């Protein structure tokens, strides 16, 4: 029941934002009663924060293949994530966290987890000599995150230029960002 309600809460939040997020709508979406929701989360804010905390921020990036291959895996997971209901909830969290400290703190946790996983890829690349240590990885990762986030927005808006394939789009974004950041050949 908890998982069903939290999933419904994320879907409601993704569709309606904080202003349209109500316990009534979450209960209806989850197929349960308002009292059942309130028994678990005493306030609307508690429910919203619990739903955001249920968000899976992990990126699975095994130490296999080249740094580029691993970065493509990161980008692909981000593209798939931002194109999902959780991705739409992410957009809402980012916007709503400007005025809500509790949401901001949850967003920072999600973002930190993602950045730490992606940073591991870059650190492995430096150790292997495939990534320049003088290039700030934070800026690279922010650029990759921003590019995948924007593509996710385009996907939700059904823009005609959305990519034909997630893997191909991930490769395109990584290759674009890697220009000038890899070690010269030779």
What is the secondary structure topology, with strand pairs?
Layout: H1 2-16, H2 23-30, H3 34-40, H4 44-53, H5 67-82, H6 85-96, H7 101-128, H8 137-157, H9 166-178
Please describe what this structure looks like.
This protein is mainly α and 186 residues long. The chain has helices at 2-16, 23-30, 34-40, 44-53, 67-82, 85-96, 101-128, 137-157, 166-178. Helix 1 (2-16) crosses helix 4, helix 1 (2-16) packs across helix 6 (85-96) and helix 5 runs antiparallel to helix 7. 32% of the residues are buried. InterPro entries: Homeodomain-like_sf, HTH-type_TetR-like_transc_reg, HTH_TetR, Tet_transcr_reg_TetR-rel_C_sf, TetR_C.
Mean pLDDT: 85
CATH architecture of the largest domain: Orthogonal Bundle
Give the count of structural domains.
2
What is the helical fraction, as a range of percent?
Answer: 55-70%
State the end-to-end CA separation: 59 Å
Succession of helices and strands:
HHHHHHHHH
Number of strands: 0
